[in-house]
Each structure stands twice: as C-alpha cells, then as structure tokens.
Amino acid sequence: MLDIRPLAETGRDAFEAGTHLAPYLARLVRRAPQAYSLLQREGATELAAHALKQAKDAAALEDREEAMTALRQAKLANHMAVAAMDLSRSLPVHDLTGHLTGFADAAVQSALTIALRQRSLTQDGIFVIALGKMGAFELNYSSDIDMAVFFDPAVFCEGSIEAGDLASKVVRDAMRILEEDTGDGYVFRTDLRLRPDPGSTPPAVSTQMAEIYYESVGQNWERMVWIKARACAGDIRAAERFIGMLEPFVWRRHMDYWAIADVQAIKRMINSRTSASDLADTSPDLKLGPGGIREIEFFVQTQQIIMGGRNSFLRHRKTLKSLDALVAADAVDASVGKELTEAYEVLRNIEHRIQMLEDQQTHRLPSDEDTRLRVAKLCGHDDLAAFDRAVAEVRKTVHSHYRDLFAEEERKHENAVQGNLVFTGVDDDPGTVETLKAYGFSDPSRIIATISNWHRGKTPATRTARGRGLLTALLPELLTAMSRTGEPDMAFTRFTRFFEGLRSGIQTLSMLANETSLLEDLVTTLAIAPRLSQTLARQPGLLEALVTPSGQEYPPALSRGADFESQMDEVRRWQNERAFLIGHRLLHSRLPAQQAALAWSDLADHCVELMSEAAAIETARRYGPQPGNWMIGALGKLGGRELTAGSDLDLIIIFEDDGDAASEAGHWFTKFAQRLITAISAETAEGSLYEVDMRLRPSGRAGPVATSLRAFDRYQHHDAWTWELMALTRLRPVAGHDALGERALEVAHDAIVNGKPDDERRADILDMRRRLWKERPPRGEWDLKLADGGLVDLEFILQQEMLLCRRADCVLPTVIDAAEALGEAGRLTTDEVKTITSSFSFLQSIQQIQRLAVGAELTADQFSEGLKARLALAAGCESFSEVESRYRSVRKQISDLRCKKIGTLATDS
C-alpha cells in the first residue's frame, strides 16, 4: 500500500516545505501573517486551538462585518494549522478530518447565532443537521459542507404564522455569512440540497413536512445520507429528537426484497463495468472514479442499511468505524477490512494534498505531469511513475472488493451498462454525465433531473417504495436500450410521456423488469413510432397484451344483457388491444406488411360485424322488429383488404324490406345505419373504433345512409358516374344477410360490366385522374397514395381495365387478385402484371410502416434513423438509401404504365 511520508518532523517545517509545492499554502502566509507568526512561535496545535476559539468568539461580535472578517481569518489560520499537521503526519487522517469538522461546527453555530440575533430571534426550535462527510466528522481540506436546516413550527418564533418565512430568511443570512467571498475570502461553501425535495422546499424545512416526506417517498440513498446525520448547531435537543424520530426510516428492522434490490441496484450503477484502462488512468477522480473513496463508502453504507436495522452496533457515522463493526459482525472478512481501511486513509491523504494546491473542491489528480509531481512530492514521493503505479494499485484493490459486493446479484446483470449511472444525491454525477453523453444523449443534465424527480415520487408510478426500487433496477437496461435505438433523446422524451402517464406503475414496471425483451420492444416502439407511442401514453395497459396469452385473439361474444354503450366499450377494449398487437408485430418485423394489411382488415371486419349486430338489437328495441334484411358492404381499402393503421372505413349499407311497408322499413334502416355509425365512430371512455366514410353510397352525401337494394340497382345502372363504378370494383360484403350481400355484389358487377361505351369510360377516367392531380396534389415526396406513380395510379390502372374488360370474373377487390385475373383475360401483359404486383407489394410494405409510425408525415427528413432502418427492413433493402432508389424506380414504372394505359397527368405534358 502507498506510504504517505512526512515532509518534515515538525509542523512548521512541513508547512514551510509545502509552500514551495502548493501555491495556496504560499498565499496563506501572505494573507494571514499573524497566524503564520503563531505557527512559527507555538506550533500547529496551538494555532489550531486559536483558530477554533476565534470561530466560536465571532458569535459574540455585534458588528456583522467584523464577525464575518473574524470567521474568515479563523478559517485561514485553521487551514494553515491543518496543513502543518497533515504534511508533518503528526496526526492520522481521521483526526485531521475530525478537526476540520469541529471547526465547521463552530463556524456554522456562530453564523446561525449572528443571523438570529439580527432578527431578535432565539435558536429555540431551529436546528442544523450535519450530513455527509460533515455529519461523520470526515470533512476534507477544501470541503463543501452538507447540511439541512429544520424548524419546529410549534416552537420556533413562538409558533407564529411567520415561522417558516423567518426560518428561511435566517438560513439565507447564515449561509451568506459563511459563503460570501469578501476581501478576506470565504469560510465554507455550503450545500443545503440534501434536505427533503430541494427543488420544491424552502431552505428551512418544517419538521412536520420532513416527517411526511421521509415516511412517504424517502429513498434508500437518502437513508444512507441520514446514517451520518448529526446535530451540529441551533437547538441541539430539538435536533436530537428529530433524528430519533427518523430512526425507523433510516434503520428498518425488516428489509423487504425490493428495498434490498434497490440498495443493490444503487451500488451496481456506480462504475458498473470498469475497464483496465479506467483503473490505470493517471489522472483519476479519487472520490467518484472507479476504486475511489465513494466505492469504499458505498461498500460500507449499503451493508449498514441492509443489516443495521437488526444490529444497532453497525450504526456508526464514521466510515472506518462502521467498517470495523462489519468485520466484527463477520459481514466483511478481516483482510478485506484491513485493505479497505488502508486504502481509505491513503486516498483521503492524497485528496487533501490535491486540494492544498489551490484550495479547490476537487478530487482529481492533475493530468499535467508537473502539477501531479507536486502532489506526489506533497505525499513524500519524488518518483512520479512509481507514485502513479502505487495509486493505481490502491484503486484496483478498492474496486476489486467493491465489485465483489453482492457478486451473486451482479451475475444476473452481466450486460450492465459501461460506466456510471447514478441518480442519487443532488449534484450531477460526472461519470454519469459522461456515460449518458457516450450513449448519445444530448443533454445529460435533463435526463438526470427527470430521473431524480421520478425517484422523489413525483410521478404516480414511483410514489411507493417498491415502484422506486423497480425503477432503480430497470434504469441501466432502459437507458442502454434507448441508446441502441439511435434516437436516445426521442426515446427518453416519449418514455417520459408514457411513464408519467401510468396511474400506478407497479404492474408495468414489474413486467418490464421480468421481461427484458419487452423493455427493448417498448423503447424501440417509443423511439421510432410516435403514433404508437401516443397510443401507449393514453393506454399504458396495452403493454400487458404483449406478455399475456393471446386468449382475446378472436372477437368477444357481446353480452346480451349489456346496454348498447357497454357493448360499444367492450368492442373498443378488444379492438384497442388487437390493433396495438398488430402494430407492434408489424413494427418489429414479426408480421409482414401484406399479412398486417389482412390483419387490420380482419379486425375491422369483426368490429363492423359486432357493432352492426349490436346496432340492430338496439334499433329493434327502440323501433320494433327488423322489417327485412340488411348487409354492410366495404369499399376502398377495407374492401380491398389493404387497411393500414388509422385507416377510415368506407362503408355502404343496403337493405331489402319484407314488402309490407316500404316507407316504414326505410325509416327503421335509417335509424339502424345511424346507430351503426355511432357505434363505430363515436368517442367513448374507451376511445373510438374507426372513422366512417359513407360518401361512396349512391348520391354521396345527398343520399340516404341506408339504401334499398332496388334503389341501389336503379342508381348504379342509370345514374352512377364512372368514378362511382370504379369505387364499386372494391365492394366486399362484410356483415349482415349473406344472400342479400351476394345479390348486391351481382348488381354491382352487372353495372360495371355494362353501361357506357369504352371511349366514354376512358375519357371519364382520364379527366378524373387529372382533376384529382390538380385538386389534391401530393403533400410530400413520401405521399405514397397521391404521388405521380403512387398507389392511386395503380388503382386507376386496374379499375379502368376492370371497367373495360366487361367480365364479372375480372372484377375483384384486391390488387393482386385483380391484376392476375386481368392478365389471364389478356387486358394486361405478363410484364405489366409483374410490374403492378411487385410495385404494389413494395409500396404497401413502406406504407404499412409509415402509417403505423408517423401517420401523415410525408417527407423523409421527418423520419428518424430508427424508422428509416425499419422501412428498409420491411422493404427487403439493405439501407434507406436503397429504399429511396427503389421508390423512385417503382414510381417511374407505374407512372409510365399509367401514361400508356390512361394518359398524362396534365394536358400540357
């Protein structure tokens, strides 16, 4: 183990030697000449006693400025005395840190006394708790001091209603006395952020509020902080009562599995996978880096937290005393305890000497070799290379023992993140910032702040200890998965929206903890598919469908006794789950695009069937028995079984009355149609099913929502426009009376096969395509439907050929079937059939992913890198650039075929 050697035998000589190596020590001589004279005359011990007395006496000075000067002079004298004792090795490091802490206690008490006196207040009911290193008497040479200030609202300021406001003003005044950098410097940098919920609470926290906070959302890392809590200023009796009140929070007699797992996860996040190069670094952070002081402290504190509730003799504030107690309890091997004790003393000694250089709160050995050599010489070593090797050995020893802590648990996390992921405490952990940067996050501080708020119970999912423990366990895998998406910022933003929308979260977090593949799927989905992520944010319970047996694959049998609205909600719940599963499988390449289109369409068919059945029962209940038969026909994408995520449903409703009262039958079926549209499209507590488009019915918006078969026959044969017959090529019965559906299909086919001469039909189709191009131009390069050479052109080509073929057996609603039938009929060549079918398959694969992920975003610059990769995978391409190249080629082929079969898009082309 590295030997820290004295620079000289006496404090005064050691300090003198130190001034030639540490600029700050040289400045001390100039800034505090009286203290230096006292050091020379009487030695370091007397100077230290003088500094402590001067800090205490400052409290009695009436003039605030005079008191502030006295405190600063006392601090300079104390720093001089401690440096002299440290560099001469006349006191062990734990006595030196104790002396530094004792001086801090005196300074804080004086500052509080002065601040109270200025407002004519006493210290009754207000107190300061020392935390962290200050609480354990382990302050380092240039340490900040961690404290929390509390007041008893029933005692302080005699219980007045202004107590809280006055307490916070007193704290601000006291901290200013300590912190303000005057011509004489400062006394201490103070940190009050270890108080309960520092972002939302005032500097002085009421004991009532603190008790509620720790009982409800206090975290395990805060319990570790409070291991070292100690009354240091103000009303000491009140402070000790408060610490006693928190004892059940800090020292739990029984630790449940989740609390222990949370403590283990906190440990795992620190330097979870450290490489040999990290430990060989000649400029390490001796506090926060691998093999550093924090690893020793966590080695001790994690075991104290787990075992200290049942074993009171483990409840020491000081790190080394606690380590000795763990050895005595056989929780730590004696040899391990000895090595960690020696390493701790070495690291603390080096830490002091680093800080003596410039009085900076730093723990990192300088990267500059000349400056680092000065640190080595302050440690009594002239050989820098040997010093560097010795420091590395110390750190390797520490990290080896730290790594072995909870080793069995660690084996379950072999794929742990590289580097730190620490979200405890109040400062951004430097290692965590670097880890998050390496993972591709652009603003690590935002990530750290958000996760810290989750840990403080500021979202429903983490308001219980178990929720917070589950989150801690999940974080490494979660953030790693976000990094792998290539869109970590977007993934985190969308996960935040999802996570903060959970009502409780325990069930969801438990699923994610137990199903690592589910976590990966969720993060990827959120990153590349905002449309799906919005669905999950609204209905996080859908996630459960991914891990439960698919018992709901088939449509539910509607509860006959349930009312119409309840039946609507029942179908919506089933549809939401099935739609999410289809989308999830499609996005993750577990369902090819063509099968996805069929799955979406089958789902819609089932919903239409279920809702039409419910609408018929409800209409009969209100308006009497059904006066005949009805059928629901699908048109458009649903008719062609080509639905995508978010598609509307083009429907037509045809009925055939029983002949008794045609007008009354029309009224009944109109009411039925209205209820069906409501059943499908109305928004309920469970959402809606689909938007319904009835504009393709006879006479469009002007026609009745339900049409009799006779009226349908008459309209299609005598009044239908050519474009309406084109739409009719995709008619497919989906619900209702089977025989009526077949007759409606026969009427449609007969109207398509007969009618206007070919020349008129050709002219109508060309005119319509040009008007559509002019009135509804494509909205972007990736408008797969309306682009020149897009899906609309494919439909126009096929539908024109069906209208000109004059054969009912060639009128088929699906693209592939229609193209092949037209090829067999001689209307399309073999090459044309191949062009149409291959082009359609390519465009469909792209459109399925595009509509699912981003909906109507139609320019490639809006596609994330993750989405581009999914588009390439769906299209069978190596890269998105290959997708783009093929897309251009496919569009040109279709455009050329449309020009050949129908004509150009503009008259001046």
From TrEMBL:
One of its GO terms (biological process) is regulation of glutamine family amino acid metabolic process. Residues 265-406, 771-897 form the PII-uridylyltransferase/Glutamine-synthetase adenylyltransferase domain. Gene3D superfamilies: 1.20.120.1510, Beta Polymerase, domain 2, Nucleotidyltransferases domain 2. Its EC number is 2.7.7.89. One of its GO terms (molecular function) is ATP binding. The keyword Magnesium applies. It is an enzyme of class 2 (transferase). CDD domains: NT_GlnE_GlnD_like. The keyword ATP-binding applies. Residues 22-242, 520-746 form the Glutamate-ammonia ligase adenylyltransferase repeated domain. GO terms for cellular component: cytosol. SUPFAM superfamilies: Nucleotidyltransferase, Nucleotidyltransferase substrate binding subunit/domain. Keywords: ATP-binding, Magnesium, Multifunctional enzyme, Nucleotide-binding, Nucleotidyltransferase, Transferase. InterPro entries: GlnE, GlnE_rpt_dom, NT_sf, PII_UdlTrfase/GS_AdlTrfase. This is Bifunctional [glutamine synthetase] adenylyltransferase/[glutamine synthetase]-adenylyl-L-tyrosine phosphorylase.
